[in-house]
Every structure is written in structure tokens, then in C-alpha cells.
Automatic annotation (TrEMBL):
Source species of the chain: Ruminiclostridium hungatei (Clostridium hungatei)
Lineage: Bacteria, Bacillati, Bacillota, Clostridia, Eubacteriales
GO molecular function, one term: oxidoreductase activity, acting on the CH-NH group of donors, NAD or NADP as acceptor
UniProt xrefs under SUPFAM superfamilies: FMN-binding split barrel
Domain of life: Bacteria
Name of the molecule in the record: Flavoredoxin
Amino acid sequence: MDVYKELPRTSFSDNMLTGIGDDWMLVTAGNEKDGCNTLTACWGGIGNLWHRDAAFIFIRPTRYTYEFIEKNEMFSLTFFPKGYKKALSLLGSKSGRDGDKITEADLKVQYLDNVPTFEQGNLCIICRKMYYLDFVPERIPEEVMKRFYPDGDFHRFYAGEILKIYKK
């Protein structure tokens, strides 16, 4: 089994446009005592906010992972090598409320700095929540409203300070 090793931020050079948009990531929150949940995301970003390295994620309040993000200060973004798209698709289509979708996807939770991630991942970004904002319907273009929000289930935007980056 490969082991995660901390990567200095100055050495981080992964392409997040393809990593998030094409390859997808898992957004995971929780803790060892209460458990965790994860969701598959293909929206998000990496950048800088208030002179801090930051990750940007979007979660609908109806998602089970939202409850874990709200209750916990930390969350992880986990990226996987090729060959995990089927597992990530399953994790994005099922709710952890209805069963153990992580086991069903044949993934194993691992905790780094007391934050849940996955043994099978090859890149893990540990974040601490630093800001959130709810989407406002009046500010969303009409074509986006029709495509992504026909039921009015608007995302919450989170900015998380990147504390550590781990890579295999």
C-alpha cells in the first residue's frame, strides 16, 4: 500500500482544471467518533483568498455530506488515479443516508490529521472552513437556473483554507 506524504505547497503543480472538472474529486467531512460521508464533485477550485491558499467547493443543503460539513471544521478533497470513475460515479449517485455507499464503492476511509480521506486516493487536500455563502437565485443566469436548479435546490459555497497537501 502506498503511503501519503506531505507535499510542500511550493511543490504542488497538479492541474486542477482537469483534476476537478474531468477526473472528479471526493469532498469528505466527519470524524472518527461520529463517522463521515462523502460526495463526488466536479465543480470547485483551488486558489487564494485573504492571502491564504484556498479550496472552493459547492454543496447542496439536501446532500447528506452537507450535514457533516456543517458539523465539522475540517474537510478533505481527495483525487484518485485512473480507474476509479465507476466508484466515484456511485458515490455521486447514492446517499449515505440510505446505506454504506463507501463500502459499496469498495473504498476504505483513512484519517489524516483526524480528517477523513481514502486509502485509494493519490492526492488529498486537507482544508479548514473559513467562509461560506448561499447562492442567491437572482444572481444566477436564467439558463443556469433552468439546467441546474429547476427545483430551487441551491448550493452553498464554501471556501476552505488549505492546511496540508498529501500525495502518494
